[in-house]
Write a sequence for this structure.
């Protein structure tokens, strides 16, 4: 019993010291450097007949756009962290060329992107973008017939979980 009491007292003492030592260390530590904006590229294939989504071919990230490997795939859309095309970016490219009337379907925007998107720029015949607040094209939706969208709106801001992008019919 005496041994158990000593162990409990030691644990309380160490726990108390650990907490105050951690607190004072945190208070005197310099602030962590700000993380550089992250930039990523995802390459998709067009869905084949009967497929509900575009297969993901590759996904690459780096601290700068220069860190990304050069890809010959067609840029479809760039999603941006902030309104007016600022902050981190996610380029979505098409292995099968530019948008057509069938387009590309991205049912699960990867983390952390699905909770970061505030604006986007589409290119290469991608004139119509539809986005959903839930994965797999569920929840509320909004659509744009525009290639440059400086703000996705309050409903989808930081809530851009799936989308489709296509050309004109």
């Amino acid at each position: 019993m005496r041994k158990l009491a000593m162990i409990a007292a030691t644990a309380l003492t160490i726990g108390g010291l650990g907490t105050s030592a951690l607190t004072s260390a945190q208070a005197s530590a310099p602030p962590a450097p700000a993380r550089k904006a992250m930039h990523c590229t995802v390459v998709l294939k067009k869905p084949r007949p009967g497929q509900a989504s575009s297969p993901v071919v590759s996904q690459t990230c780096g601290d700068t756009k220069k860190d990304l490997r050069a890809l010959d795939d067609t840029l479809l859309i760039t999603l941006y962290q902030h309104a007016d095309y600022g902050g981190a970016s996610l380029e979505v490219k098409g292995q099968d060329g530019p948008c057509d009337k069938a387009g590309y379907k991205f049912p699960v925007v990867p983390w952390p992107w699905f909770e970061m998107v505030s604006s986007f720029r589409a290119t290469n015949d991608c004139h119509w973008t539809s986005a959903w607040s839930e994965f797999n094209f569920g929840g509320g939706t909004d659509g744009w017939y525009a290639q440059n969208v400086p703000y996705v709106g309050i409903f989808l801001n930081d809530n851009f979980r799936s989308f489709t992008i296509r050309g004109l019919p």
User: Anything to note?
Assistant: The longest helix spans residues 2-28. The chain has two domains: 1-32, 39-166. The longest strand covers residues 74-82. The chain is about 15% helix and 35% strand.
